[in-house]
Design brief:
By secondary structure, the protein is mainly beta. Helices cover 6% and strands 37% of the residues. The chain folds into three domains: 24-189, Sandwich (Immunoglobulin-like), CATH 2.60.40; 199-223 and 248-387, Cupredoxins -  blue copper proteins (Immunoglobulin-like); 396-541, Immunoglobulin-like.
Length: 543
């Protein structure tokens, strides 16, 4: 049954195009929404403009004159999509979910034409990529909206090699299926594997019933769908049904739906397929495979395992780590992990259990004939050695040198009762990004520490645009961190480089980054509904 079709959002005044943004709608010029970070507004407030001189200069330094240009087109459209025996009407890039794989080598230029055939405006964000600010895809902050019938040419240098993805960054559109994988290859990497499997996980509700669209769900949540049981602030020890702040990723715990991501989804997908008609990866026994796992979900944490195999984690959010071998790992929305595995002989379930939701996504890795594993099978590995954030250590060549960083506390606040999610008790307005919030001010070259302090009963995968951070310390709300040395319960001088960091209820995590990419950058919870409710702020480069 079709989901309810919702009207387009209202728009304010229009403005002229940026010189870097070519938008057309057939023969007519596309109509644009207001741009909160536009050049004149930014200059008046002492901010670096998303398309200003500092951004142009930084982009020019990254781009080699001889760089190869890879071109692609993404068409955002509404229509039927087959999920493996069940057809739903939804939104997608092209004819399927996920969208097409985009791929290139570090240093090459990616040029993507995005055509909007949706009934609403849209934008595209290139998740995890440190690219020029005016290509980042945040409506009214880094670019105008792409109106229905219009298009935009995104163009940027592909930065650090790794596993990434792209997705819509307008309202809760990502929840409809507007996402796809993006891989940046390292020309110098030895490539010591025989097969590569790209795995995209997603939770799914759109098109399954009347009122199942993400906008419908958001309205229900904001109308008080959870009642008044769950409130903030909290500290460690006050959320007995949540995963303990120091528990390993994937640790079994009596999570309720609210604390496991707010929405009880009817389906979970692996590469756009239901477990009853799973995506199958084929290889020969004894071969070494690289598995790139992307969590593109709206609000689900997955626990991942491959039956009868152990997994060696080699990369987190695109950056290499000291290899660590585990049986299972937990991946939050927006995170990516690269795994290495030597394949056995048979047909094995690749399971992704939705934490606290009693359901799972599943694929099959097949190296021989034999029966396909049943749809609901849960490998024993799911209950064995689990990865923890503290296990991950960045390789020496990608560690950040951030002596005496400037410290900023980032309080994650809000509660379920009124479905109000905030940062530092302030609500982000996507239509007017700087209204009512206090940005984190930085200047190019600064070393910055953000201490993420979760005072809510929910998990928050915190994603920073345009940068990666290095995890420096993990503790609880009872611990205090020294902004100079990353003290606290568990200092991590060589913690992982990441762009998305999951913060548990009652937990605090200190992360560092170098301000080396000028512009106005969103920092937000990657739970689609938390972001739509206002859980974001801005890292703002000053002139």
């Amino acid at each position: 049954m079709e989901a309810v079709t919702l009207p387009s959002a209202a728009h304010g005044d229009r403005r002229k195009l940026s010189r870097r943004q070519v938008l057309t709608g057939g023969a007519a010029l596309g109509v644009l929404g207001p741009l909160g970070g536009c050049t004149s507004d930014a200059a008046a407030n002492g901010r670096v403009a998303p398309d200003g001189l500092a951004v142009e200069q930084a982009a020019a330094q990254r781009r080699a004159a001889s760089a190869r240009v890879r071109q692609s087109t993404l068409t955002a459209r509404a229509g039927p999509v087959d999920l493996g025996g069940r057809t739903v009407r939804t939104w997608s890039y092209g004819d399927g979910v996920p969208g097409p794989l985009l791929r290139g080598s570090a240093g090459e230029v990616l040029r993507v034409r995005v055509d909007n055939r949706l009934p609403q405006p849209t934008t595209v964000h290139w998740h995890g990529l440190a690219i020029r600010n005016d290509m980042d895809g945040v409506p009214n902050l880094t670019q105008p909206e792409i109106e229905p019938g219009a298009g935009m040419d995104y163009e940027f240098v592909l930065p650090t090699p790794g596993t990434y993805f792209y997705h819509a960054h307008h309202g809760v559109q990502r929840e409809r299926g507007l996402y796809g994988p993006l891989i940046i290859d390292d020309p110098a990497e030895p490539g010591d594997y025989d097969n590569e499997f790209v795995v995209v996980l997603d939770d799914w509700t759109d098109g399954t019933a009347v009122g199942s669209g993400p906008e419908d769900i958001l309205r229900y949540l904001q109308a008080g769908g959870f009642g008044a049981k769950y409130r903030a602030p909290v500290t460690a020890g006050e959320v007995p049904t949540a995963v303990a702040p120091d528990a390993p990723m994937g640790a079994p715990a009596p999570l309720v739906t609210q604390l496991a991501g707010d929405v009880q989804y009817p389906f979970h997908l692996l590469n756009g397929r239901l477990p009853t008609a799973p995506h199958t990866f084929t290889a020969r026994p004894g071969r070494r495979a690289r598995i790139r796992v992307i969590n593109a979900s709206g609000a689900t944490v997955y626990r991942v395992a491959l039956g009868d195999h152990r997994l060696t984690v080699t990369h987190s959010d695109g950056y290499p780590v000291q290899p660590v071998t585990v049986d299972t790992l937990r991946i939050a929305s927006g995170e990516r992990y690269d795994l290495a595995v030597t394949l056995g002989d048979g047909a094995f379930p690749l399971a992704a259990v939705a934490e606290g939701k009693g359901a799972q996504a599943m694929g099959v890795v097949r190296t021989a004939s034999g029966a396909t594993p049943p749809a609901g099978v849960q490998p024993a590995e799911l209950g064995r050695r689990m990865l923890s954030l503290a296990d991950l250590q960045a390789l020496p060549e990608v560690r950040l040198d951030t002596p005496r960083p400037a410290g900023h506390d980032v309080y994650l606040t809000g509660d379920m009762s009124a479905y109000g999610w905030r940062i530092n008790a302030e609500t982000y307005d996507a239509a007017d990004p700087f209204a009512g919030i206090t940005p984190v001010p930085v200047r190019s070259g600064d070393h910055v520490r953000l201490t993420l302090i979760n005072q809510t009963p929910a998990f928050h995968p915190m994603h920073l645009h345009g940068h990666t951070v290095q995890v420096r310390a993990i503790g609880t709300n009872r611990a205090r961190y020294d902004a100079r040395d990353g003290g606290g319960d568990s200092p991590l001088p060589a913690g992982a480089r990441k762009d998305t960091v999951q913060v548990a209820p009652g937990q605090r995590i200190a992360v560092d980054f170098v301000a080396d990419n000028p512009g106005q950058w969103l920092h937000h919870c990657h739970n689609a509904y938390h972001l739509a409710a206002g859980m974001a702020h801005i890292v703002s480069y000053q002139t």
